[in-house]
Amino acid sequence: MPEENKFDDPKTIWIVLALLIKVSSRLKEKKNIENSPVQIFALNHYPPISYQQVDNLQKAPWEFSGNCYIHLPLVETGGWKQQPVVRASFESQEGLQIFRFQVGLLVEDKNVAEGEGEKCHGIGIRFESAEGPGVHNHFHAQFFTKFDRNGKRLEDCPDWLPDSYPAIPIPADNAVDIICCALKSLYNATDIWRWIMEEVKRLRGKLDDKTCLRIKYWSEKCPRLTLT
Questions:
Q1: What is the pLDDT of residue 114?
Q2: What confidence tier does 80 reach under pLDDT thresholds 50, 70, 90?
Q3: Is residue 106 a contact partner of residue 120, using CB atoms and an 8 Å limit?
Q4: DSSP H or E segment with residue 85
Q5: From CA 23, how far away is CA 179, in angstroms rounded?
Q6: Would you say residue 215 lies in a domain?
Q7: Structural domain contains residue 177
């Protein structure tokens, strides 16, 4: 009997999200990394969810509450330190199961001198599955300014930033792909994928083989959309 495709199974996704928390923690411990100002800011304003909390979600479908986030590894480019904070959810909409992976990118202002206080800028990018007939009927990424419609705006994020368009097509067709696509956009040229794959190997048996292979595929290349 062929193995079931579990790429959109909430339990699979919670295992993958718990894996990301474990990678972030082990990376920090291994490299003995101290928190930068932007990471301290994120800890104070975007409380991190624990590995155990996410790991427990395998037992029952659940979505993030309004006040807990996954803190991914710090990104450093061009002297700018960027802390990604993440939320994820499954939603039912007109008979469809829609997966959303929200990445709030907090950017440390390198022009603020040490001791002058915290200053960071924020921008949000969410990666989503197709939403049914209409202009968002494809897997896509788009900007956002708030994690919640009625929540606070990300730090220093311009209120004019469009949060519905453009809906940029992404090479994904399931929830696992959505997460990997977001990770690829953040960490393509880093060693983060090696750490991810080491954790995937530890989870063989807990994660099904097809999901392990799919993540491995993303770690090596970016899948292309296939036209039929």
A1: 57
A2: confident
A3: yes
A4: strand 80-93
A5: 14
A6: yes
A7: yes
DSSP per position, 4-17? PP-TT-HHHHHHHH
DSSP-derived secondary structure letter, 158? -
The encoded tokens of residue 125 equal: 């990018």
For residues 65 and 89, the answer to whether their CB atoms sit within 8 Å is: no
Q: Which of 50-59, 100-109, 182-191 has the lowest mean pLDDT?
A: 50-59
| Strand 70-71 versus strand 80-93 pairing type | antiparallel
pLDDT band at 31 (very low <50, low <70, confident <90, very high): low
Provide the terminal-to-terminal Cα distance of the chain, rounded to the nearest Å. Answer: 26
* Single-letter amino acid, residue 54: V
Residue 67 has what DSSP assignment?
A: T
- The single-letter DSSP state of residue 44 is H
Amino acid at 82: Q
Name residue 96's beta-bridge partners.
93
Average pLDDT, the chain: 83
Specify if 57 maps to a domain. yes
Domain count, the chain: 1
Look up tokens 């800028």; give the residue.
121
Cα–Cα distance, 139 to 131 (Å, whole number): 8
Write the CA distances from 123 to 1, 10, 35, 71, 112, integer angstroms.
46, 27, 21, 15, 19
Q: Do 80 and 36 form a contact (C-beta atoms < 8 A)? A: no
**Residue length, the chain?**
228
Q: Answer whether residue 213 is part of any domain.
A: yes
| Angle, CA 155 vertex, CA 149 and CA 161 arms, to 5° | 60
Instruction: Identify the pLDDT of residue 4.
Output: 61
Range of 105's domain? 10-220
